[in-house]
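step 3/5: co-fold with arginine
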Amino acid sequence: MWGGRFAEGPSAVMREINASIPFDKALWRQDITASKAHVAMLGAQGIVSEADAAIITDGLERIAEEYERDGVPEDWDLEDIHMTVEARLTELIGPVAGRLHTARSRNDQVATDFKLWVRTANERALSALGRLRRALVERAGEHAGTIMPGFTHLQTAQPVTLGHHLMAYYEMLTRDAARFEAAQQRLDECPLGSAALAGTGFAIDREATASALGFAQPTRNSLDAVSDRDFALDYLMAASQCAIHLSRLAEEMILWASQPFGFASLPDTLSTGSSIMPQKRNPDAAELVRGHAGRIVGAATSLMITMKGLPLAYSKDMQDDKPPVFEAAGLFDLCLAAMTGMIAETTFRPERMRAAAQAGHATATDLADWLVRQADVPFREAHHITGEAVKLADSKSCSLEELELSDLQGIDERIDERVFEALSIEASVASRSSYGGTAPDQVEQRVAEARARLDAEAGDSE
Ligand code: ARG
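step 4/5: write tokens
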């Protein structure tokens, strides 16, 4: 395709290091779509005859059928998907195939193909995130009043509701969705027609190709357009941030499914057994979601480091943009699907959660707050009095609620029997009704709002 000025062909190692066809064949659909838009525009502009444009279009469609049926052949001599398609087109329709590459370069071609691919990856992420967010909201609605220990430092802190805990992840994933939306908006400019780096002298119609490929407008600077991979980084960084959230959720599912916690039992369909220990049910899917997050962040790092320090415009380093994106997208799609199944189908164990909340003196803050409110004790002193009560409960191996009034009055005589109303975990949770707090009525309100928002998003994307 480019051998005119060369006396000798490339060495074996050159052919191998240069070949991107093993991975960029994944772009075949986008490559053919972009070529069809390009040749239609060349025909409409009279740059090639309408008759030749029709022959080329027809040939491209035959290639699409072949690839769909038989896969894409991998010939290193043809380097990449762009040359592979063009070589096949030449076999099918003869020298007229050579007119397709008028007024474009592989540089704007690959930028366009890759953008089209990343656009669908963003779309997949958004719809998968919609499903996972929906699953979280539904489970949160079911468990708006289910009490569990809330932790800081992984030490029992205050009782919270499971619904509140699950809605925390809904919030994270809603921010992630916004990042994919923003990525999609920034991506919405078509590089095709930027040619090698400087634009072209042919009278092309860039608005036409942009709109045929579903972009809002053409890119405004040809140098930027052929050397920009921000759209791929936007995808990888949004996926990384989301994968970090999924990994945290996975870690909690793993903890909750462990025997000492026993808060949840993960679905059989997303667990595995041990070949040696018959009792085991391992949370492998959750562990792999946690593990894959590392590879997704690694992919983002890989592309950032590929891009740093590259001069304008295209450099061959940029061919290395695709493997990390393809790998991360495959992993990320799987992580979202696995997590959605896990959230939808996990059996939560409210009695175990309740017992754990009960056991950890999770209502100690409520006793201190009661002393402040009912007995006008300064908070620092109330904190100290409560500490004594916790010590006493521990020495009697009971909960704060189970202490006798006389025991409590022995610590501080300002305590009276009304204190027991504050010490139950139900009362504690119900009292935290500040906006965004864990009280069941707050959680129910947030769940209702989230449902309405998800319905509206689903309506928008129809
Ligand atoms: N296979 C190349 C890539 O993925 C296509 C662009 C090649 N352009 C060039 N001037 N060699 O980046």
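step 5/5: annotate
Residues 20, 24, 80, 106-107, 110, 314, 318-319 surround arginine (CB under 6 Å).
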